[in-house]
Specification:
32% strand; alpha+beta
Length: 180
């Protein structure tokens, strides 16, 4: 597999084969994808709590926390625009970084943080070859990155917005889960 085959910084849209699964109806941003596996964050599943509630701190009430995936659901991640730099931040692409920095939290409290920010708990992970197999099974549809869709489109509309951008009508995709 060549590096051009990896899907770093792209979205995965869960197809109907995943109905009833944690990933049913999800959009996942692939942070890293290589021969060892893949790591991503689900970006369209609101968790129902604010960052202030999760951390028990004032000044963070207006930031919703999303469910980033079923692995390590108590681990906090941030997706943010790259104009703000934090130690240990991982640059996903030219438009978004991932960070776990506590300095970022303080910057957000002081209104000096990144222009665009998403807080998430947990992540999605795939072992070596697992994601490639799921792509062959037509479990996921891949889409190119869009900062506007990630940061501006409401969670419940991200899937449709990405599909529309690709010219795909999700209502026309079969829910038949039998192997082909």
């Amino acid at each position: 597999m060549s590096t051009s085959d990896f899907l770093n910084g792209r979205f995965l849209l869960a197809l109907p084969r995943l109905d009833g699964d944690f990933f049913s109806g999800t959009v996942t941003l692939l942070i890293e994808h290589n021969t060892d596996g893949a790591f991503g964050l689900v970006v369209n599943q609101p968790g129902g709590l604010s960052l202030g509630e999760v951390l028990g701190r004032d000044g963070l009430e207006g930031i919703p926390v999303h469910l980033g995936g079923p692995v390590e659901p108590d681990r906090l991640f941030f997706l943010h625009t790259p104009e703000a730099r934090y130690e240990g931040a991982y640059r996903v692409n030219d438009f978004v970084c991932m960070s776990t920095s506590t300095a970022l939290i303080e910057d957000v409290r002081n209104d000096t943080g990144p222009r665009r920010l998403m807080a998430l708990v947990g992540y999605a992970g795939w072992g070596a070859g697992q994601l490639e197999q799921e792509l062959k099974q037509e479990i996921w549809l891949t889409a190119s990155f869009s900062a506007d869709i990630l940061f501006e489109v409401p969670a419940g509309e991200k899937m449709t917005a990405l599909a529309n951008r690709m010219g795909v009508d999700l209502n026309l995709i079969s829910t038949d889960t039998r192997p082909h």
